Amino acid sequence: MFSLELTPLLTATIETLYMVFIASLISIATGLVLGSSLFVLSNKKASKRAIYQMIAFIINAIRSIPFIILMIAIIPLTRLIAGTTIGTNAAIVPLTIAAIPFYTRITETALSQVSTGLLEAANAMGASTFQTITKICIPESMPSLIHGATLTIIGLIGYSAMAGAIGGGGLGELAINYGYQRFDVVVMLETVVILIIMVQVIQASGDKLAKKRRIKPLILPTLLALILSVSYLVWPESNTNVLRIGVMSGWQEDVMQTAKALAQKDYKLSLKIIPFTDYTQPNMALANGSIDANIFQHQPFLDTQVKARKLALMSIGKTFVYPMGFYSTKIKTMSHLPYRGIVAIPNDPSNEARALLLLQKYGVITLKEGVSTLASTRDIVENPQQLRFKELDAAQLPRVLPDAELVAITNDFITSAKLSIQEALIKEDKDSPYANIIVIRIKDKADPAFNQLMDVMHSNEVRDKTMQLFPKGAAIPAW
Q1: 370 and 439 together in one domain
Q2: Nearest-angstrom CA–CA distance, 189 and 50
Q3: For 404-432, what is each residue's pLDDT tens digit?
Q4: pLDDT tens, 217-266?
Q5: Pair 77, 115: CB distance under 8 Å
Q6: What is the DSSP string of 48-88?
Q7: What domain count does the chain have?
Q8: Do 284 and 392 fall within a single domain?
Q9: Domain residue limits at 396
Q10: In the chain, is it the N or the C terminus that has fewer CB atoms within a 10 Å radius of its CB?
Q11: Which of 287, 288, 282, 294 is nearest to 243 (CA)?
């Protein structure tokens, strides 16, 4: 039976409100200034049109970038501004940058609807540009500006949910990590209901304020929310001696909860578990100092990342081998694999190669010589059955079992998908080179805390918890 956990839901809701409020405040204020500037410049002589066109081009360029791509593209800027690339403070940066151009255009459009007669009258009375904007244009455009602000805030709620995909916190992260990754429909419904309530309240409030053409009722609540947000931002950690460990979201988090309790009990070492949903982010977060170690990958994947991204990372020990397998609900044996059948494999480079090498081992395909752990579908030189390969996110693979003849699934997701390793038509052996490893920054290798972490991960308690979650050969100790 499902159980509702109110504490994670409440925490995620507060995080969402916090990041949306801060991003809304900054983006609406900035957008109002930029939009007013565009409105003024658009009515100036040709000499000012160049400035208008330059600002307009930048705004349009940012608006044209999908939010998920924008988040990834500005990771260095996020790190520079927020000091980290994960968490709610980091999410505020892309949220704000995405929303500013949107509200800028809303402001420009709203001001352009002001009666020309009013503008001419203000000009005839000797009003300055600033006075015309603040005393005439903005008051006259107030309903449109409020409606635009309402749309902006609602849009930011949607963006904040997407930010959960790269560790942005909030309801989006809760839905992805505990709903999507664990196939928990109740968690998904909880987050959807909360998001619906938020949107309904904001839309109703915006409509009411627009009818009254007043924003004074917002001043006190805004100041209160600002005070609460600052308090949330600067509230001290209960324990500053924390080792932040990055893992993939899902059942690995349960293993790490056991490790967390043991580390505190035996070594007075506090572990903070940071879940990720994207295979590339944990290494980038480790390299830039957002986390202190990660436990999610195997040596071939680390080698590929280190070489491609010039990362100063190293392994300090192995944990478990989680054999990859190919599963099917359409065929019973590999001999039944049909001509031009669909084969779904992970889309991250390392696990894609891992899946292809497993198929090659069983004679299904042949790869170019020497590609090894960097193999991709482009390296297939022989495909006798003309199989059609579909590359998907690892968490999506169990969901396409009804649609594909053969699906490669890592052990991170077989438990959530209610599968067992025994059901795999083909699978890796216990001597697989793909043992998960503990990875740290090279400069931290002398820190004794990481030796303690390795001892914890090799403990009987962690081994037993892992074997409980991944029984019957689904997890094999590699130390």
Answers
A1: no
A2: 50
A3: 999 999 887 887 778 888 899 999 877 77
A4: 777 777 777 777 666 665 655 555 789 999 987 778 889 999 999 999 99
A5: no
A6: HHHHHHHHHHHHHHHHTS-HHHHHHHTHHHHHHHHS-SSSH
A7: 3
A8: no
A9: 325-427
A10: N
A11: 294
